[in-house]
Write a structure and sequence with these properties.
This protein is α/β, with parallel strands linked by helices. The chain has 5 domains: 1-45, no CATH class; 153-217 and 384-454 and 478-494, Rossmann fold; 220-252 and 262-379, Dimethylsulfoxide Reductase, domain 2 (3-Layer(aba) Sandwich); 551-691, Barwin-like endoglucanases (Beta Barrel); 709-743 and 758-1016, Alpha-Beta Plaits, CATH 3.30.70.20. The strands form 11 sheets. A 7-stranded mixed β-sheet has the order 5-4-14-13-12-6-7, with helices on both faces. A 6-stranded mixed beta barrel has the order 18-24-20-23-22-25. The chain is globular, with a radius of gyration of 31 Å. This is 4Fe-4S dicluster domain-containing protein. It comes from Flavobacterium pectinovorum. Residues 755-785, 839-870, 871-900 form the 4Fe-4S ferredoxin-type domain.
C-alpha cells in the first residue's frame, strides 16, 4: 500500500508560498550576477556579505557558486559535412613512408587520427630494413613546431611564392648573362627523381652545378670506397653474418655511417646453440658500441691509427712499422689473430677520418672475404665531398658565385669556418635557403623559402642501392610551404606538380609493379649486383697511416653526435632535449667528457649534492689556431681514454628556437677540415655547472639480482642454477625458492589473455627509441631541466645504465663475496660506488613491472591503482588523490607524480602549451592533470584496440599482433610483448627460457616483465 504522507522541503512549500511555483519552473528566478560578485577580486575581498546572505541572494542554492567557480569549458566541434571515406572517427589510419633528412633515415608507418599524424612506427614489410631511431620517433613532434617558417621571406620581409619565383628566374637570367656561377648546395638527397630534376636544371643552365654537403662528413670513407670500387657510396655492413667484430673508433650502434646496424648486430649477440658473436672495441669516448663490447680498450685516436696498421699487418701479412704501447699491442694482436682465424665470418670497421685508414679497412675485409662486408646494396645516404665544399667557399669569397640555392642544410651553423661562409654569402648576388625554419642560414639569405615537413611532402629515396622507397604526405601542409622540387620544376619551365613528375619518373624504376602498390607498401626491391674492387696500393696507404702522429697539444678532442640530438636539426624538439643520454644519463646539456685520471690532474670534479642533483666543473677548450670555447661543463666519464676529450655537436643553436631550447655550446666550431679529431689545450674554468642527470648511482654495488651477467663459457658449461641463481627464503625453517612463496592466494589467470613483456639484456643497446615512442604514444609531458634536476622527470620508461667498479661485473661480485665484517662491508660498498677507469657497462630498460602481487595496490587508500585480469596494473586517474603511498611502496621506483599541470601552462612552455603542439597528442590516452600518479600502462589502449580489431574480423589474435609502444619501437628485438597464455607465442617461450628472471624476485611481487641474463663472450 502506497503512502499518502506529504513530504516537503521547506516551510514555504508547506505554506504554499508563491515562490515555490516559480522555482519549479526556473531554478534561478533572476539572472545570477556572478561577475559582479566573483569577477572583481577587490570588491569580493572588501565585501561584508556573509556566506549565508550570499547564498540566499542567489536563490538558496549552492549550484550558483559552482556555476561561477567550477563550470567546465565549452568545446565546440564541427562535424564533417562530407566525411572522407578513408577516415573513421576513433580509428587510426596508417601510411607507409620513408624519411631521409640528410642525416637520419628509416622505413616508416605513420599513425594518423582524424587526419593528424600522431606517432611513428616501423615498417616491417619485406625489404624494409631500416627502423626509426629516437630522433625519427621524435620527428612527429617537429611537424607541429610553432617556430617553423610559415611563409616565404624576401630580404627579411614576408613575401609570396610568386615573388620568390620571379626573383629566382630573374637571378638565373642575370647569372647566365654575366657568366656567373649558379650553385645548388644541398644535403645528400638519395632521391632518384630529385637528382634527375637537378640534372635537367643543370642542362638548362650550363653555368650551374650541384654541390653536396653533409654536416657530419663521411667524405674520407666515400673517397676510399670510390677509389677502390668506382662508386661514391658506403658499405652496408651486415653484422648478423659476423661471428667476430673488430671496431676501431666506429660507434656502429650509434650514428657511424648513418647507424641502423643494431638489428643485425643483436641477432648475433643472443646466445643460440652455445654460440654468439664476439666484439672488440678500440675507442676514445665511451660509446653505445663500447658499452656493448665483450672487450673494450680505451685508446687515443692517434693510437687507433697504429692499431689499424697492426691489424692490417697481421691479416695481410705485411710488415709496416708500428709505434704502439706494449699493453695496447698485446690487445690489438689478440683481436687481429682472432679476426684472421674467423676468416669470412669476421669483419672490421673504423670511424677514423682519414682516406688511407679507410683504404686499410677495405683491404682487411677483402682479405677476409668478409660476408658482413656488403658491396652489393651500398648505402647512398652520404655523398658529400670535403674538397668540393671547401672550393665552393673559396669561389664564394672570390665573388664568382652569382646565385646560391641551398636546400636541407644549415652551413652557417654547422661549418667550422662559418665566418668565411658568411663573408662569401655577402658576395653572392642572390641566395636562397629552402628550410623548415628561419635558422642561422635562412636568416642571412636573400630568400628564406619554407619547405614542408617530410610528413607533408612527396618524394622518393634510395637509401641502399637496389631498394626504392616512396615518401608520401600524411597531412596537408600546415603552413604556406612549397617543396624545393616544385620550385625547381617552375625554374625549368615544366608545368605540373612534383607529384606528377615523381609518379612519371618512378615508372622506369618500379617496372613489374604498380605505383599504388609501391605507395601502399612504401618500398620496392630492385636488387643490385656485387661491386668488384680495383687495384689499389694498400701498402702505401698503410705506410702513410703509420707515420701519422698526434699533433702538438695536450689533448685529442673527439667530436661525436649524441643519441638524442644528432646533428642538431631538431634542437627545438623538447622530447629530444629531455631525453637522457644513454651513457651519461644527462639531459638538457652538452658537455666535455674527460677521464678520471685527467680530471684529478686538472682539479675537475663531479659531485652529487644534497638534493640529488649533479654538479660539475667548467673548463675552457682551445685549439692550436685559437678557436676557443669557454665555460664548457665537464662530465668525468668512466672509460674515457686518458689524454682525450669528448664533445657532442648539435647544440648551441639560437635561431628559430624557443628560449628553453637554447642549450649548450656549438662544437661545430672545432670541426676543422671536417675532421672529428682535433688537438686542443684544456684548462679548468671558474664556476659550478648544475646538470640534469637522472641516474645518481654509479654501480650495482653487488646487487646481482638486478643485472644478472655471465660469460659464454660458464653459460655453456654450468647449469642455469649457477649463472641464473634463484633467490631463496626460509619457509618453516627450510630454504625454498622465493618464487614459490606467496603472501596471499593468486587469482586464476589461465583463461583469457595474460600479458608479459620480455626484455633481453643481450639485445638491448640502450638506443632509447623505446623511450621516445612511449612519450608519443602515452602523452608523457616534458618538464624541463629544473624539474629533471629535482628528480621529477616524467618518463614512463627509463633505461638504467650500470657501470662495474672492477673491470668486469664478475669482479664486482667476487669483491662483494670476499667482504668480511660490517666495517669491511661499509668501506667496500663505498669504494664500489666509484666506477672503474674502464668499466663494463649494462643497460636495463625499466618500466612498471605490472606485478601480479603489486605492493602499490595494497596501500592505495582510494583504490586508484588496481590489477586487471590480463596482468596489467591499472591507474584510475580521477580516483587518485596523490598520497604517493604507491610510489613509496614500489620497489622498482617507476611511478611518477604530477607535481604541476604540464598541459596549457606557460611555466612549461613546450609542445603542450600551444595549440599546434597539442595536435600530436594521442586521443586514446588521457592527458593527466596535477596531483596524480602516472606510470606505464603496458599500453592498454593498444592491447584493447588489437582485441577489438580481431573480434570485428571474427578471428583470434595472432602471435606478434599484441604490441606496446616500446616493443613496437625496438629494432634490436630486445623487447617482445605478448600473451603468455598462448603457449605457442614467442613471449611464452621466452618467459620459460632458462635465461629468464624477474627484478627483485625475492620480494615476491610476481612481475609480468621478464628479463634475460646478459651473456658476454669474453
Amino acid at each position: 500500500m502506497s503512502s499518502n504522507k506529504k513530504y516537503w522541503k521547506s516551510v514555504e512549500e508547506l505554506e504554499n508560498s508563491s515562490i515555490v511555483e516559480a522555482l519549479r519552473n526556473n531554478e534561478f528566478v533572476e539572472e545570477i550576477p556572478t561577475e559582479e560578485f566573483l569577477g572583481n577580486a577587490d570588491a569580493l575581498a572588501q565585501s561584508g556579505t556573509s556566506r549565508r546572505d550570499f547564498l540566499k541572494y542567489v536563490g538558496f542554492s549552492t549550484a550558483a557558486v559552482t556555476l561561477a567557480a567550477c563550470e567546465g569549458p565549452v568545446h565546440k566541434s564541427i562535424p564533417y559535412v562530407l566525411q572522407p571515406e578513408q577516415i573513421i572517427p576513433g580509428v587510426a589510419d596508417y601510411y607507409a613512408t620513408t624519411v631521409f633528412d640528410g642525416f637520419d633515415f628509416a622505413n616508416l608507418l605513420v599513425k594518423t587520427r582524424e587526419g593528424r599524424p600522431i606517432k611513428i612506427d616501423n615498417n616491417t614489410i619485406s625489404g624494409a630494413k631500416f627502423s626509426a631511431n629516437a630522433r625519427i620517433h621524435a620527428s612527429i613532434l617537429s611537424l607541429y613546431d610553432s617556430m617553423r617558417l610559415k611563409e616565404p621571406k624576401l630580404d627579411g620581409k614576408n613575401s609570396s611564392w610568386s615573388a620568390v619565383d620571379l626573383k629566382l628566374k630573374s637571378s638565373l637570367a642575370d647569372a647566365k648573362a654575366k657568366g656567373g656561377q649558379v650553385v645548388l648546395l644541398t644535403n645528400t638527397l638519395a632521391s632518384p627523381s630529385t637528382e634527375k630534376l637537378i640534372g635537367e636544371f643543370i642542362a638548362k643552365n650550363p653555368n650551374a652545378k650541384h654541390v653536396v654537403y653533409d654536416a657530419v662528413s663521411s667524405s674520407d670513407a666515400l673517397d676510399a670506397f670510390e677509389t677502390v670500387y668506382g662508386e661514391r657510396a658506403l658499405v652496408d655492413y651486415d653484422f648478423s653474418k659476423a661471428s667476430l667484430i673488430v671496431s676501431v673508433g666506429a660507434d656502429f650502434l650509434g650514428d657511424w655511417q648513418g647507424g641502423g646496424y643494431d638489428a643485425g648486430y643483436a641477432q648475433g649477440r643472443i646466445p643460440q646453440n652455445g654460440k654468439m658473436s664476439r666484439h672488440f672495441q678500440f675507442e676514445s669516448n665511451m660509446t653505445l658500441s663500447g658499452a656493448a663490447a665483450d672487450k673494450r680498450v680505451p685508446m687515443t685516436p692517434s693510437d687507433q691509427k697504429q692499431a689499424l696498421v697492426l691489424v692490417y699487418n697481421i691479416i695481410a701479412g705485411a710488415s709496416v712499422p708500428v709505434s704502439l704501447d706494449a699493453k695496447f699491442k698485446t690487445e690489438v694482436t689478440k683481436a687481429a689473430q682472432q679476426l684472421k682465424a674467423a676468416g669470412s665470418k669476421g669483419v672490421l670497421v673504423s670511424g677514423i677520418d682519414d682516406k688511407n685508414a679507410q683504404l686499410l679497412v677495405l683491404a682487411i675485409n677483402q682479405v677476409l672475404a668478409s660476408e658482413a662486408f656488403n658491396t652489393a646494396g651500398t648505402r647512398q645516404i652520404r655523398k658529400g665531398s670535403n674538397a668540393i665544399v671547401s672550393q665552393l667557399i673559396k669561389d664564394m669569397n672570390a665573388g664568382s658565385v652569382h646565385t646560391l640555392i641551398m636546400s636541407g642544410i644549415n652551413p652557417v651553423y654547422t661549418l667550422a669556418d662559418s665566418a668565411s661562409f658568411v663573408s662569401g654569402l655577402k658576395k653572392v648576388k642572390t641566395s636562397v635557403a629552402f628550410s623548415l625554419k628561419e635558422d642561422e642560414t635562412a636568416s642571412v639569405t636573400t630568400i628564406a623559402a619554407p619547405v614542408p615537413h617530410y610528413l607533408e611532402a612527396w618524394g622518393d629515396v634510395m637509401i641502399t642501392k637496389g631498394t626504392y622507397s616512396l615518401t608520401q604526405p600524411t597531412i596537408r601542409p600546415i603552413f604556406n610551404t612549397k617543396q624545393f622540387q616544385d620550385v625547381l620544376l617552375s625554374l625549368n619551365g615544366v608545368a605540373g606538380s612534383f607529384y606528377d613528375y615523381l609518379k612519371a619518373s618512378s615508372a622506369g624504376i618500379i617496372a613489374g609493379s604498380s605505383w599504388n602498390k609501391v605507395l601502399h607498401d612504401g618500398i620496392f626491391v630492385l636488387g643490385s649486383t656485387v661491386l668488384s674492387g680495383g687495384s689499389v696500393d694498400y701498402a702505401a696507404a698503410a705506410n702513410a697511416v703509420s707515420k701519422s702522429k698526434a699533433a702538438a697539444g695536450e689533448f685529442e678532442l673527439v667530436l661525436y653526435t649524441k643519441t638524442g640530438l644528432g646533428d642538431g636539426q631538431q634542437a627545438n624538439n623538447p622530447w629530444l632535449q629531455e631525453f637522457p643520454d644513454p651513457i651519461t644519463r644527462v639531459s638538457w646539456d652538452n658537455y666535455v667528457t674527460v677521464s678520471n685520471a685527467d680530471a684529478k690532474k686538472l682539479g675537475l670534479t663531479n659531485e652529487i649534492v644534497a638534493n640529488g642533483g649533479l654538479n660539475g666543473s667548467y673548463a675552457t677548450i682551445t685549439t692550436a689556431d685559437g678557436v676557443k670555447l669557454e665555460n664548457v661543463p665537464v662530465i668525468v666519464q668512466p672509460g674515457q681514454a686518458i689524454g682525450t676529450l669528448g664533445l657532442a655537436v648539435g647544440y648551441g643553436r639560437k635561431a628559430a628556437l624557443k628560449e628553453e631550447m637554447v642549450v649548450g655550446l656549438n662544437a661545430y666550431a672545432f670541426y676543422k677540415n671536417f675532421n672529428s679529431v682535433q688537438s686542443v689545450s684544456f684548462a679548468k674554468a671558474n664556476g659550478v655547472h648544475e646538470f640534469a642527470c637522472v641516474q645518481g648511482q654509479k654501480t650495482l654495488m653487488g646487487r646481482g639480482d638486478i643485472i644478472k651477467e655471465t660469460t659464454l663459457e660458464i653459460f655453456n658449461t654450468r647449469d642455469a642454477e649457477f649463472w641464473n641463481e634463484q633467490p631463496m627464503v626460509s619457509l618453516d625453517h627450510e630454504e625454498v625458492k622465493a618464487t614459490t612463496v606467496d603472501l596471499w592466494e593468486s587469482f586464476d589467470r589461465s583463461t583469457g589473455h595474460h600479458f608479459n613483456l620480455s626484455i633481453d639484456l643481450n639485445a638491448c643497446t640502450g638506443c632509447g627509441a623505446c623511450v621516445i615512442a612511449c612519450h608519443a604514444e602515452n602523452n608523457v609531458p616534458v618538464v624541463g631541466k629544473a624539474e629533471v634536476r629535482r628528480s621529477r622527470d616524467m618518463h614512463w620508461l627509463r633505461i638504467d645504465r650500470y657501470y662495474s667498479s672492477e673491470s668486469t661485473f664478475a669482479g664486482d661480485n667476487e669483491r662483494k663475496e670476499n667482504i668480511a665484517g660490517l666495517s669491511s662491508s661499509l668501506s667496500t660498498f663505498n669504494e664500489m660506488e666509484k666506477p672503474g677507469d674502464n668499466p663494463q657497462v649494462s643497460f636495463q630498460p625499466v618500466m612498471c613491472q605490472h606485478c601480479n602481487h603489486a605492493p602499490c595496490e595494497t596501500v592505495c587508500p582510494v583504490a586508484a591503482t588496481s590489477h586487471g585480469r590480463e596482468g596489467q596494473n591499472h591507474m584510475a586517474y580521477n580516483r587518485c588523490v596523490g598520497t604517493r603511498y604507491c610510489a613509496n611502496n614500489c620497489p622498482y621506483k617507476v611511478r611518477r607524480f604530477n607535481w604541476f599541470l604540464y598541459n596549457k601552462n606557460s611555466e612549461f612552455d613546450y609542445h603542450m602549451n600551444d595549440d599546434l603542439g597539442r595536435m600530436v597528442l594521442n586521443p586514446d590516452v588521457n592527458v593527466r592533470s596535477r596531483g596524480v600518479m602516472e606510470k606505464c600502462s603496458m599500453c592498454i589502449q593498444m592491447t584493447q584496440a588489437t582485441k577489438l580489431k580481431a573480434k570485428n574480423e571474427g578471428r583470434p589474435v595472432a602471435d606478434g599482433e599484441f604490441q606496446t609502444a616500446c616493443s613496437n619501437a625496438c629494432s634490436s628485438g630486445a623487447m617482445i610483448f605478448g600473451d603468455v597464455n598462448d603457449t605457442e607465442s614467442k613471449v611464452a617461450k621466452l618467459a620459460a627460457d632458462e635465461r629468464s628472471y624477474h627484478l627483485l624476485e625475492h620480494v615476491g611481487t610476481k612481475p609480468n616483465v621478464v628479463y634475460h641474463v646478459k651473456v658476454r663472450n669474453t
